[in-house]
Amino acid sequence: MTVPELITAIKDVLLGVAGATTATVAVIGLKNWRRELKGKAEFEVARNLIRATYKLRDELQNCRSPFISANEFPEGYEGELGKSSPLEAAQAWAYVYKARWLPVWSDIQEFDSHTLEAEALWGNAIRTRTDGLRQCVRELNIAIDAVISDKANGGEDFKADRELGKNMRSTVSASSYDENNALSKKIVSAIVAIEEHIRPHLRRS
Fold first, then answer.
1. What is the DSSP string of 109-153?
2. Which pLDDT band holds residue 100 (cuts at 50, 70, 90)?
3. Does residue 48 carry a pLDDT above 90?
């Protein structure tokens, strides 16, 4: 092999090595870029879902607040001391809880939207956890309807089962300081389950 041929061969080898190195660097760079994009996407989804979770938690507590001001009732309602009929009382309480439920309804829609995004990334595992909090919302909604129905019927609904009445009322109304309330404990447990799944994605950012 002549000197020019040797130089040409060495040049070809070097060009081949350089090309392979460039390709390897490009592949590694692409993988890192994809990993970074995935990490950012997961962080955003996790942050949005945990915010929606906390907003829903706070509105559930507002809805369940035992303190109800006179301003929350419709104008002209005189309360338990007035001469309101059972139906009028039920309508007044329905008025109160309809207003209290509107923010809950808005937040549950936002919560569901972010749950879908999370499910697209992490699968059914996160859906199982968010369903726990959604079940708490359903329980509250059912209890509100039951309590208002009881008022409309002059307290007759719960007379046959006073324990049921007690449970329904404690579901509808509870202080934020009542750690023994059954629904409050379920809400806390559901939120902890969501946090446990989300926190690793927030730290990864």
1. HHHHHHHHHHHHHHTHHHHHHHHHHHHHHHHHHHHHHHHHHHHHT
2. very high
3. yes
CA dist list (Å): 139 to 28, 56, 114, 167, 186: 51, 14, 21, 11, 10
Q: What is the DSSP letter of 79?
A: G
58-88 pLDDT, tens digit per residue, is 999 999 999 999 899 998 887 766 678 899 9
Amino acid at 74: P
pLDDT of residue 26: 45
Residue 161 region, left (φ>0) first, then alpha (ψ -120 to 50), else beta?
A: beta
Closest CA to 178 of 90, 97, 66: 66
**Spacing of C-alpha 27 from chain mean position:** 38
Domain that holds residue 99: 3-203
In whole angstroms, how large is the CA radius of gyration of the chain? 30
pTM: predicted TM-score of the whole model, two decimal places: 0.79
Rounded CA-CA distance 11/18 in Å is: 10
- Residue 41's identity, in one-letter code, is A
Can you say whether the dihedral through the CA atoms of 78, 83, 89, 95 is positive or negative? negative
Biggest distance spanned by C-alpha atoms of the chain: 117
**Total domain count, the chain:** 1
Non-local CB neighbours of 26 within 8 Å, separated by 6+ positions: none
